[in-house]
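input
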Amino acid sequence: MSHDVSALQAELPELDWTTDGERLAVLSRDFSWFSPILKRALAGAVADIAVRPRDEAELTHLAAACARHAVPLTLRGAATGNYGQCTPVQGGVLVDMGGLNRLLWLRDGAARAQAGIRLGELERRLREQGHELRTMPSTFRLATLGGLFAGGFGGIGSITWGPIAAPGNVAGARVLSVEPQPQAVELRGPDALALHHNWGTTGIVLELELALAPAQDWHEVVIAFAGFDAALDFAQALAADPALPKRNVALLAQPLPAYIQRWEASFPAAHDAVVAVVASAALPALQALAARHGGRVTHQADSVDAQRRNHSVLELCWNHSTLHAMKTDPGLTYLQCSFSAGSHLQQVRAVRARFGDALLLHLEFIRSSEGALICTALPLLRYVDEAHLQGVVDGIRGLGVRVNNPHHRHVEDGRFGGTLPPEAAAAKRRFDPLALLNPGKLRVWPLPG
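output
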């Protein structure tokens, strides 16, 4: 669906517009190609025009003009998401938020920054002052703060601090409405989370205020195991030990490690691997724990140095493993699973027994929003067709495991299991009363009743 955007350009000629067709096609895509289903469903969905506001004033003028002319607008960070959240389903204006990239302040263990700041840059500046982000995705080099909030769940650091939505992680957000006279509103605490993980459909996030963690000297480690059960028990013990400060604990069950190129020396053949990031002072204790579980350390490095050399285990974790594996075998795709606190190990073993090597198991140990130790999974599998994929989903769910199916194009069906929560619907009505924020990404709007 195309829209006449000439009136917007005429009204706001000073904005940084992009009309080149090839450039628009690039800007209208994210990593939704991880899903062959989304790749087909979103094919041909391209913005009519793109714009990069330089500051909040320009963005406000744009939102007002789009409201007056009834032109849809879709927000874009760095396009590292996997759900097509920055693909303009019905065309219109693609808004590159990268110009709003300032760190506004840092004090008392918290920071406020604009939504377009890249997380790698934010992390660097925070560490200069003795702080670091509590949670960040494996795509932290490129991903933006607003993109993480609008499309992310958790990531590196969630083993200690839980997901983004855990109480206390997000202190507030400044949000802009899309209407002829846009309003900028400050939301605090839980109210701000009404816009979290809604793919930019419920309001324009201008700024976010985050609680921070004290900066640590981190050490990256890979530990190889000759059996899955030993690797799982070790990962659980490491994740549960409060005396071992950690930033990430992941398990890559064989044969998944063989799909990750450039790391062959660290992943012995036919071995399962635990990828961990721990405080440097905890390294001797980690090595002793690994030895007790029959593990062998095959890689270790200072995390800052590893990132500088572009050889960091942080970029083996979370959905980065999907990217690595699909580069090796494009016929793969992935799922997102969450196990139950208190029974997560039994559920993991049940999934492993049910599917074997047909499901390349990748576990991430985290704290839930309630503080319980659990693990999530980003398993890979060979894509056959939609019916086969749904059969695998049903089989996993039959074992009592939650599956957030990442192959849906609508917000409700991906994360929420079919229904938009009341608080998200209320935010949509408040901040996007004309339903111009990426129309088509909500399955039902307006909501009945």
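quick obs: The chain has 15 helices and 20 strands.
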